[in-house]
Predict the 3D structure of the following.
Amino acid sequence: MTSQLTASSLFTDLKSRIDARQARVGIIGLGYVGLPLALLYSEQKFAVTGFDIDRRKIDTLESGGTYIFRITPEEIAAAKANGFKATADYSQIAAMDAIIICVPTPLNEYHEPDLSYITDTAHAVAPYLRAGQIVILESTTYPGTTEEVLIPILEKENKAGLKASRKGAAGDIWVAFSPEREDPGNTQVARHDIPKVIGGLDPQASEIAAAFYGSIFRRTVPVSSPAAAEMTKLLENIYRCVNIALVNELKMLCLRMGLNIWEIIDAAATKPFGFHPFYPGPGLGGHCIPVDPFYLSWKAKEFDFRTRFIELAGEINVAMPYNVIASTISALNRQKKAINGSRILVLGVAYKKDIDDLRESPALTIIELLQKEGAVVSYNDPYFPFVGRGRKYDLQMKCSSLDHLGQYDCVLIVTDHSDYDYKKIVDEARLVVDSRNATRGIKSDKIVHC
Ligand SMILES: NC(=O)c1ccc[n+]([C@@H]2O[C@H](COP(=O)([O-])OP(=O)(O)OC[C@H]3O[C@@H](n4cnc5c(N)ncnc54)[C@H](O)[C@@H]3O)[C@@H](O)[C@H]2O)c1
């Protein structure tokens, strides 16, 4: 292990490289989180190398292309001009000063955390580590992952016997956890205005990580440990998941009582304190909200603890696509039509509006449920010309045009993309079932809210 003196000079050296924008940045996992982050560092004139195991992504980036809708080829070209490279070659880790891990953290088929992407990355990185680097995990995960899963692999499998710096025990590398807080499709808050929470394994790790993130984020928020930072991210997502479940449940009640939940939420939101609006929908989607809370439920069991809010919220949110189907069946029934054989156009398949992300989208479940009921289903989504196969679905459907909406027995709004002309859609459709209140302000007895 490095002596106190060497550790102190490695620290000063890395800090000054960061301050001078000379630190070389390695970002592992060039997906929705990693690629935008790589571009942010590149904009700030850091030399950035992106690592991914997906050859197609690397080839696309290396040829100046892009695979994320909101990232343009011009942005990739600008990053390349600043030295951005994409590679699958982990030996280049040795040349990096700061390494950020942004790989997926899904649930497995038993609804338990699947940390294989993190452990695979740790195994791949460890042999190339050298003294004086900082490794930061950004993937959302349960409290304890950085210390119990990541660090043991890094320490055991590096060739030089390097140790992570701990409180009171100087080491050779620094390790921190800093959660990603991106809100895809949100154009109101600039990425650099989102404060960055940082939990270093020791004060030096926190200080280096704060200097490193401070070069792109206006504010950094230090917490006492990686586990505190891991838990902060889960609290944020659980807060959202539970509040969405609450309004989803109240929506079901309001529908029965003949009340409009959106009108009520908007009225409640005029209260200038103590209320934050959340909106109901056809079910949860995305990589985070339907998944992350269960990372904590799983970990809690180790402490003989049941996270009942998470489980109840999960139960309510998972039921929402089934409620959409029940409302569609009932709306068709009122027109003396059976769902079996009805032609239904699902409008919007992305998990939320104005983004090109299908992961865990409730639209996928809804399409499958409609097909099981015998409906003839089509879809339209400007972000997806084709929906093929994913981890949990295999639809093989092509996007249908919005011409001749009158041919469908029902247009079912699942994702309220801003580009849709809802007035025109209602005018041309025979029946509109709206799970997002996208048709607000349009008066027509063809509209059924669900
Ligand atoms: N997408 C979001 O809005 C968001 C927001 C906050 C937090 N997060 C969290 O960030 C993490 C990453 O999410 P994402 O949306 O970017 O996922 P993603 O699936 O879009 O991207 C992950 C990338 O990692 C790559 N990868 C997988 N294993 C690898 C390995 N061993 N080495 C190198 N690359 C590897 C994949 O090929 C993929 O390109 C997750 O933990 C997620 O929960 C995501």
In short: The chain is about 40% helix and 15% strand. The two ends are 62 Å apart (CA to CA). The longest strand covers residues 24-28.
